[in-house]
Structure formats: structure tokens, C-alpha cells
Amino acid sequence: MAIEQTLVLIKPDGFKRGLTGLVIDRLDQAGLELIGAKMVGVTEKLAKEHYKDLADKPFFPNLIRYIRGEFHDLKANQVLALVYQGEGAIALTRKVAGATNPEQADPHSIRGSFGRVTTQGQFENVLHASGNAADAEREVKLWFKPEELVSAARAATNGKH
Ligand code: TYD
Q: Is the pLDDT of residue 151 over 90?
């Protein structure tokens, strides 16, 4: 299996409910390597670009409000953005996260344990995890500059240790 990189976001519900450490712990336990991490204030532009493939969905406007923390009183619109690397990292991260709909997710997964569907029908599912190789590549580039990722290969070519 190939070494992959994938984007994880601790969404506002996960952040507000104190699940940041748990998510990082579960991904650590799965054997994934953390190579990038930063708090990001999510602008409307970034949110819409990130979710551009869902722009025609009825839940899109509320999805943009959700990822910007508007339902969780996050005044700085902040999320924690992470990049994980490892063999089959994309599928492995999705497995640890669980299915998109928390009500259908494996109860042992993060979303199955801690996600919820609001009475308005919005999925609050704790974290984002890139869906496939093309999305992962696009999303890692959208959220991180290459120099923000800790990479052994880059350290070697820069002479940094
Ligand atoms: P999607 O990209 O389909 O799922 P995933 O996050 O697992 O890759 O959807 C993006 C987000 O949109 C999802 O995490 C939660 C929200 N969403 C809803 O609120 N309602 C829905 O019916 C769907 C499909 C998604």
C-alpha cells in the first residue's frame, strides 16, 4: 500500500466538546504519523472552497455555518487542521472517523460514539477526514503550505535535522 497524506479537521462541535485530545489519541493509536498541525480561522471563502463539491446540496449553507463555528459560538471561526501520513492513511483515517452520518456510524468509531444529528438535520460529526486520494491532495494543499509539513525527505534536502 502507498504512503499517503490526508487532511483531518477537528470540527467546531469536537473542539467545543473537548474531543480534540481524543481524536488525536485515536489517530495515534491507529499508527498514523502527524506531520502538520495548526489552528485556522475559517473564512467563508476557505469553507466554500473546501466543500465546493457539495455546493448544490440543500445542506450546503448550514454546512458552511457549521464548519465556521457559527452553531458553536466560536468567535474566531477556529478549527484545528491536521495532516496525517502513513500507509493507506486516507482509508484508515476514515475508518477511525466512522461513517458520515453519526447515526449510521460504527459505534466504536469517533463519529458513532460522539457525533449527533441535530433536530434541524445537520450532521455534527466531530471531524473531517479526506474522502479519497484526489480530495486528500487538494485539501492538504488548500489548508497547508508545503513548508508547514514536517517531512523527513524535505529535512534531508534542506540539511535540517
Ligand atoms: P460529505 O463530504 O458527504 O461526507 P464526509 O464529511 O464524511 O466526507 O459531507 C460533508 C459534510 O456535510 C459531512 O461531514 C456532514 C455534512 N452533511 C450533512 O450535514 N448532511 C448530509 O446529509 C450529508 C451527506 C453531509
A: no
Residue 15, ligand 1, Cβ within 6 A: no
Instruction: Judge whether 110 and 29 are in contact, CB under 8 Å.
Output: no
Task: Please say if the pLDDT value at position 39 is more than 60.
Answer: yes
Check if the beta carbon of residue 114 is closer than 8 Å to that of residue 126.
yes
Q: Which amino acid is at 31?
A: G
Q: 13 by DSSP, 3-state: which?
A: helix
Global pTM value? 0.95
CA of 117 relative to ligand 1 center, distance in Å: 11
Q: Grid coordinates standing for 100?
A: 458520515
Alpha carbon distance 134, 145 (integer Å): 17
Residue 90, CA distances (Å) to 59, 123, 128, 131 in order:
25, 21, 11, 7
Q: Under CATH, to which class is 3-157 assigned? A: alpha beta
pLDDT confidence of residue 81: 98
What tens digit of pLDDT does each residue of 121-141 get? 999 999 999 999 999 999 999
Q: Give me the percent of the chain exceeding a pLDDT of 90.
A: 93
Domain spans, the chain: 3-157
Q: Is 161 a catalytic residue?
A: no
